[in-house]
Amino acid sequence: MGKSENLIINGSGSYPGGRYDKISIRGEGTIVNDVECSIFNVYGTSESVENVTAGSVKIIGEAEFQGNIEVKETLVMGTMKVDGKAYLKKVKILGLLEVGEKLSGDEATIKGSIVVNGDVEYERFDSSGDFEIKGLLTADTIMVGLRFGQSSAEEIGGGKITVKRKKNSLFPFGKEVGFLTAKVIEGDDVYLENTKADIVRGNMVKIGPGCQIGLVEYTNELAHDPSSTIKQSQKNKGE
Q1: Which of 24, 117, 204, 207 has the greatest number of C-beta atoms within 10 Å?
Q2: Rounded distance, CA 48 to CA 42, Å?
Q3: Closest listed residue to residue 51, CA positions, set 36, 61, 38
Q4: Cα 156 to Cα 12, 27, 135, distances in angstroms
Q5: What is the pTM of this model?
Q6: Beta bridge partners of 155
Q7: Rounded to an integer, what distance in angstroms lies between the CA atom of residue 83 and that of residue 49?
Q8: Which residue, among 146, 209, 211, has the nearest Cα to 185 in the 3D structure?
Q9: CB 65, CB 83: distance < 8 Å
């Protein structure tokens, strides 16, 4: 099958996988084998039974990938579900992303919601939506803006970790604010607001307002807002 071929689905039915230039699904389509393509756009409902490799993926409607997926650029405005592993090099989530195993890549921007049953690993992770990560969230830079709802991860690790409350632009006078929960948060430079954690470790640790922390272990400096609770703190010797 030539790579220059396009697969355009406007109705419904099952189609073979293979190599395509562009796949566009506006109806309801099932692709039954491995797929490799440059562009994969879903405006309707799509189901891929095997693995998918693509240059770019845009989901306006609903898409389910039963295998693994590897994509250079991903935009999710609807709902995307990956049962296996998802390597999304550069991803922007305005809707909902669910991943059954590991999610990884270079740059993640979360303005909607993600639910991941495994680990999440990125160079830069920037969230102003909400996330539920059953494993470890790790990135060189982690920026979390808490607008609404609950975000959680089993553990969070990185170089620079910043968690801040943000006003909800749609309801600026509303009382609801976001909250982050994790068992362990560990980084070089850590700043937290509205966070509940059993253990926080870092070289420079600043605990802002609205936090409940069990133990803080720090190497260089610890500062904390009087409105936050730290049950125990411990200064470690630098190596």
Answers
A1: 207
A2: 11
A3: 36
A4: 42, 40, 9
A5: 0.93
A6: 136, 184
A7: 10
A8: 211
A9: yes
Listed as own residue / partner, the contacts of 57-63 with beta carbons closer than 8 Å and 24 or more positions apart are: 59/95, 61/25
CA 235 vs. chain centroid, Å, equals 32
Using CB atoms within 10 Å of the CB of residue 194, give its burial: 0 to 12 exposed, 13 to 18 middle, 19+ buried.
Answer: buried
Count CA within 13 A, CB hemisphere, residue 52.
35
Question: 108-118 in b/e burial notation, b at 16+ Cβ within 10 A?
Answer: bbbbbbbbbeb
CA angle 176, 181, 87 (to 5 degrees): 105
Q: What is the signed CA dihedral for 18, 15, 66, 68, rounded to 10 degrees?
A: 10
Is the CB of residue 84 less than 8 Å from the CB of residue 102?
A: no
Residue 23 has which token pair? 């796949």
DSSP alpha helices (H): ranges in the chain? none
- Residue 117 near residue 103 (C-beta atoms within 8 A): no
Interatomic CA distance for residues 160 and 209, integer angstroms: 19
At 148-182, the pLDDT tens digits run: 789 999 999 999 999 999 865 555 555 567 899 99
Q: What is the pLDDT of residues 10-44, one digit of tens each?
A: 989 899 889 999 999 999 999 999 999 999 999 99
What's the CA gap between 31 and 80, in Å, rounded? 15
Token digits for 161?
């970790």
